Amino acid sequence: MPTQIATGRRKTAQNALLEPNDLDIPKVESALEALWGRGVNFADLYFETTAREEWQLEHGTVSRASFSIMQGVGARAVVGEKTAFAYSSAIGPRALLAVTDATRSMQFQGQDASIQSRHTAVTAIGSDPNSYPAIGVSADLDPVEKVALLRSVDTLARAVDPRIVEVSARLSVVDSTVLVMATDGSLAGDVRPLIRLDVTVLAEDGARRSHGHAGGGGRCRLTKFDEPMVSRMVERATSTALTHLDARPAPAGVMSVVLGPGFAGLLLHEAVGHGLEGDAHRKRTSVFGGLMGQQIAASGVTVVDDATIAGARGSLNIDDEGGAGQRKVLIENGKLVGLMQDKTNARLMQGVTTGNGRRQSYAHLPMPRMSNTFLVAGKHDPAEIIASVKTGIYAVEFSGGTVDIASGQFNFSAASAYLIENGKITAPIQGATIIGRGHEALKHISMIGNDFQLDDASCGKFGQLIPVGVGQPTVRIDNMVVGGAQEG
Predict the structure, then answer these.
(1) Domains of the chain (ranges plus CATH)?
(2) d(CA 471, CA 103)
(3) Is 164 within 8 Å of 241 (Cβ atoms)?
(4) How many beta carbons lie within 10 A of that of residue 95, not counting itself?
(5) pLDDT digits (tens, 9 = 90+) for 443-462
(6) Which of 124-133, 155-164, 263-272 has the weakest average pLDDT?
(7) Is 209 helix (H, G, I), strand (E, B) or coil?
(8) Pairing mode, strands 372-375 and 464-472
(9) Rounded distance, CA 477 to CA 479, Å?
(10) C-alpha angle 388-391-397 in degrees, rounded to nearest 5
(11) Overall pTM > 0.70
């Protein structure tokens, strides 16, 4: 039986989602019992309420503020590899009956299993994980303070240099409460804060224009956005924009690429991480399929997915199937040693769940997804890594790209990059595209820095968008194909 989470968080979720909607544990147990039958292997109910705020500053004015509340329940029944699923935007006895009836009607034909009338009693035991505060965070700042926060971004950015001609900032605050009950007897709940501040600036010098961006947040209090942090974000965004006013076209060819710490880990997340999710292996669509225990990366390369990092954007006290968030080693010293699994794929692959069952909302099915996925720090000083490259590029951030999980082929555009010439970072460049195959790039990692950083990101898969963490130290990868920009 998987880990079951009891606790104040579960009680808070129960009070928020059941009692106000004329529901209690016995009524939910009865709904779960109704999902048994017709060979069902597993079923669960997922309750959620989410409050979301967004504040937007443009042209020196807070021009938009929005607030919304979403709530509902999803019912799932799994039969072999097939899943029946229904959801309702209402929570209550009638809604619960409707979604269980709809799910049951979709269950696949065949003789009922002997467990058709099986009783389900949910229990909650265990300790309370504490990777983030178990309270709503929106009230940390009142509306006047939120407006003042955004205006401070505008003031600080414009004061840096008169060439900063446009500033925009967006503050997002999300408070979610979830409750998960399943036919394996598990009962778990969580209260999940999520905040983010994004800063974007435009610099102009004659006909030349350049953008800079910085963002941050996590599962933490709004008080994280104090004056020092906001100043660092503004400095990062304005420095990028001003520096790249003088960017030259990127070179093209095969060369060494040095990836900066933090957000550059997005390449690892996309080109490698998705290929280590359980469903890709079960369906044989991953380039890493069948390689468990084999050397798939250079010696010294260790990749981890960790949902337990305090305050990180991808952290989870429990996943969206009620399993405890965990730290999993995926690649250890170059060898493939683990996958990320949800309940369905773990059962079909005769493996174990890893707390990676995630969904965008109650209206979506869970699937194996990453939490905070990163390359572990090595021993090299970042300056030593740069000095080791005679000719190459230094990529700090990526603006987007594409990945084919089956072949490992990736293509990423560098939003912020520089030339490396004779062991020194020199001119900023534009139009650089990093091209390669994830499994090959892992083998060409030759130096790993000691300056690990974790950054925020959002991850899309099969139309579902979830918050994640990406990270790495400074890394040198050799024999990379760089697509350059054309003059004019």
Answers:
(1) 8-246 (3.30.2290.10), 248-483 (no CATH)
(2) 39
(3) yes
(4) 18
(5) 999 999 999 999 999 999 99
(6) 124-133
(7) strand
(8) parallel
(9) 7
(10) 85
(11) yes
